[in-house]
TrEMBL record:
A divalent metal cation 1 binds at residues 95, 136. The gene is fbiB_2. This is Bifunctional F420 biosynthesis protein FbiB. The lineage of its organism: Bacteria, Bacillati, Actinomycetota, Actinomycetes, Kitasatosporales. It catalyses: oxidized coenzyme F420-1 + GTP + L-glutamate = oxidized coenzyme F420-2 + GDP + phosphate + H(+); oxidized coenzyme F420-0 + GTP + L-glutamate = oxidized coenzyme F420-1 + GDP + phosphate + H(+); oxidized coenzyme F420-0 + FMN + H(+) = dehydro coenzyme F420-0 + FMNH2. A divalent metal cation 2 binds at residue 137. FMN binds at residues 273, 385, 422. Residues 1-233 are annotated as: Coenzyme F420:L-glutamate ligase. GTP binds at residues 14-17, 44, 49, 98.
Amino acid sequence: MTAPAYRVWALPGIPEVRPGDDLVKLIAGAGPELADGDVVVVTSKIVSKAEGRIVRAADREAAIDAEAVRVVARRGPTRIVQTRLGLVMAAAGVDASNTEPGTVLLLPEDPDASARALRAGLREVLGVDVGVIITDTFGRPWRSGLTDVGIGAAGVRVLDDLRGSTDSHGNPLGVTVVATADELAAAGDLVKGKAGGLPVAVVRGLAHVVTPEDGAGARALVREAAQDMFRLGTSEAIREAVTQRRTVREFTAAPVDGAAVRRAVAAAVTAPAPHHTTPWRFVLLESAEVRVRLLDAMREAWIRDLRELSGFSEASIAKRVKRGDVLYRAPYLVVPCLETSGAHTYPDAGRNAAEREMFVVAMGAGVQNFLVALAAEGLGSAWVSSTMFCRDVVREVLDLPAGWDPMGTVAVGHAAAPPRARAGRGVEGFVEVR
């Protein structure tokens, strides 16, 4: 049995590409002749040049803004962005290398369409059926160094899905999907290089990856947002979690993972607090029977207060009490409690009040940490103040220590629907500069 092998070489003799140049003729005339089943690996820069994707260097930042749809990470002047093509890369691929001084190159408008046009042109001129990959250079998370990847493709099986097959020991492969286009791109880059003036390579001997149809193109390599575990850099993820945390009032019936809630509690108790204290306590109501018993007791106390202390009508009482239904609908409840044994005591009421306020602020910081961490776990939440209006009832039903002060109830669950879009808030009206 012959061991698998392939050859890869760079095509010599391709001149400096100018806007409007015919890449098909340049590649076809470079030799040696192409054959059926070859894969032609083309650096995106010459595609961009031929397509006139050139702008003045002074316009580079504006070009990045135009090409980007969101910032993934920012470190000093460097921006990692997602482009309109779905690619996540530095500076949206706007590049000042291998172009005339004073200019920068944008990526091709549609790399898959460019690859299809090159493939069709080579078939027409040379009568060969080849695959085409258009490449660009990427950095990678967790790995130092750069490598070429496929950003456009035609006639190439860009992904080799091995899920459902077995390895040499008979073990099932459950997650293995090989990025064939990226492997071919990297192989081509080994002979093209970054500064050798060799923008095209040919891979021969892997005809099984070449397909009769053009195929889905390199777009199939872009991971869908729902499957992307690392859509943001660290600081961007923190900011996104804080600003996108939303109150959720409708939940699915899916159970809540108690371990996820405990991880959120671990984040909550990193909040700042006075005098090196730890004033947070979180009562996790994982029992449906306990949740209902508590909510029923709280509802009775609420109705009594509305009827006897506020003099509300029965219709008005029913309307107000209905607001608490969100707690009944939630599959998991958490009661955050404030514990102030570490507070200082003063001989006057003013300083004692300020001391308690310090602890209450710390409690709010802890609860905010908790809610944001729940969102990071994929859980929705609603912080409801109801337990603060019937603290004695809550302490009795839950058998809490006398020093634990219930500070609301957090409904936790999987959101029944995505939250509605909300405009961001500027700082105007919230800051005063002195």
